[in-house]
Automatic annotation (TrEMBL):
This is Right handed beta helix domain-containing protein. Residues 1-27 form the signal peptide. Keywords: Signal. Residues 115-235, 281-442 form the Right handed beta helix domain. InterPro entries: Beta_helix (IPR039448), PbH1 (IPR006626), Pectin_lyas_fold (IPR012334), Pectin_lyase_fold/virulence (IPR011050). It comes from the Bacteria.
């Protein structure tokens, strides 16, 4: 039977055009399994603007949704489950050029498996994923175990990505949960979601963009991966107990802005337990880094980039083998302002902060207390830098096994400046209980209006370089 969906009242065409009215049929409500035996059958029958309602149950399907503007709505992620492993296999859902305001809501996609996009593959379009779960899906040949996004703009709201896995070449930590594909110019707005237990929580790859707000990354093999020209803005987000690649990993030309966020208990096998950024830009504002660890840069690692760290706290972070218990900075331009470094530790140099290798760094209005270094610079170390400037800082109760209980400056090319700072009750095992300046000193040395007292075994030690 052919069902006529147009209104029963006849209206002149000219009136429809002039009055801005639509001849489109009223949206229909299609129900599974009440009216349609499968989700695929309902999607195939639906027209633009329709809603497909899916009752509680497990649906052994691999669904293809092309082009239509629909709403696919379950009764809750714990109730309505798409699991292709019990039937045809493959991924749970493929969405091709699905336009806004289409949405998937209240559904679990579980046990999907495909070469890429094990749970869901989104190709083009601009759909929304809302209040849904993506669990135990596998991409067998690349990134994107839970959801893979290609040339699309997506909104992810109130979703959970749990125990998804990406395998094969290029997978690594890149988006076991959610992956924005390289060179696809994809964009994602991720809100109030959870990434837990994935082989990499989320990844934004080459020339993609993402905003992440109010989200939790926990116990992933790397929380958030930003790579090769991708740009990510992170707000009000927590990175907790991620491992292998730490909390946030931006190893190659990623641009990262993080504000009002927590990095706690993360571990990196190399550098930047909480966060690592290299060859891009990094802005960290009003964040807390606590109890993170790495070989160097226990809390935060910044290498070969332009960076700023503002109004942030670093507490109890550890560099297990090298320097920078709280922060490690090497090669580039960095500003640290209004920060607090408390009880951090480094195996070698810079219990609180280590600055190294051809960098210009300014640290101001910052407190260093109770930090420890296995070699030099209990509070802070600067070694072989182009320039270091310390302004209005406080160093107290820091310890170094070697030199510079409060501060160690070992070699600089252009300048080393310390002004209006307080250095008290620091201890060095060798020399310079408060401040040690040594090594090659080619540029300007300026010490202005500092208070340096009650340090052990001495206050200031400057190696004789004909100054």
């Amino acid at each position: 039977m052919n069902i006529l969906r147009t209104p029963a009242i006849t209206v002149p065409v000219a009136l429809l055009v002039l009055g801005g009215l639509s001849t489109q049929a009223a949206a229909s409500q299609l129900r599974v399994p009440g009216e349609y035996p499968t989700i695929q059958a309902a999607v195939d029958a639906a027209l633009d603007g329709d809603t497909v309602h899916v009752a509680p149950g497990v649906y052994a399907e691999s669904i293809l949704w092309q082009g239509k503007q629909l709403a696919l709505v379950g009764t809750g992620a714990g109730n309505t489950i798409v699991d292709p492993s019990a039937g045809p296999g493959g991924r749970c859902l493929t969405m091709v050029q699905v336009p806004s305001p289409s949405r998937v809501q209240g559904i679990t996609c579980r046990n999907g498996s495909a070469a890429t996009g094990g749970g869901v593959l989104i190709q083009g379009g601009s759909p929304t994923l809302r209040h849904s779960v993506f669990e135990a899906n596998i991409a067998t040949d690349g990134p994107g175990g839970g959801v893979r996004v290609e040339e699309a703009t997506v909104v992810v709201e109130g979703c959970a990505f749990l125990d998804n896995e990406a395998r094969g070449i290029g997978a690594g930590p890149a988006g076991g949960g959610l992956y924005l594909a390289a060179n696809s110019h994809s964009q994602a707005d991720v809100r109030h979601s959870v990434f837990a237990g994935n082989s990499g929580g989320m990844a934004a790859d080459r020339v993609t963009r993402a905003i992440v707000r109010g989200t939790l990354f926990e116990d992933n093999m790397g929380g958030l991966h930003v790579d090769d020209g991708a740009s990510v803005d992170v707000q009000l987000t927590a990175f907790r107990h991620n491992h292998t690649h730490g909390g946030l990993y931006a190893p190659f030309f990623g641009d990262v802005r993080v504000s009002d966020s927590l990095f706690e208990g993360n571990i990196s096998e190399l550098r930047g337990g909480g966060m690592h950024g290299r060859l891009g830009s990094a802005e960290v504002t009003r964040c807390v880094f606590r109890d993170n660890s790495a070989l160097f840069g226990g809390g935060l690692s910044l290498v070969e980039n332009e960076s700023s760290v503002i109004d942030s706290w670093f507490i109890g972070n550890t560099a297990e083998e090298r320097g920078g218990g709280g922060v490690w900075i090497a090669i580039g331009e960095a500003l640290v302002d209004r920060c607090h470094f408390i009880d951090n530790a480094a195996a070698t140099i810079g219990g609180g902060v280590s600055v190294e290798s051809d960098s210009h760094t300014t640290v101001k209005n910052t407190t260093f207390r109770g930090n420890r270094a296995g070699a030099d610079g209990g509070g802070m170390s600067a070694a072989a830098v182009l320039g270091i400037s310390l302004e209005s800082c406080q160093f107290s109760d820091n310890t170094a096994v070697g030199r510079g209980g409060g501060v160690s400056i070992r070699g600089f090319v252009e300048y080393a400046r310390m002004s209006r700072s307080i250095v008290m009750r620091n201890v060095a095992g060798d020399r310079g209980g408060g401040l040690a300046i040594w090594g090659s000193q080619e540029g300007e040395l300026l010490l202005l209006k500092n208070i340096i007292q009650r340090n052990q075994p001495d206050q200031v030690w400057i190696e004789d370089q004909q100054r």
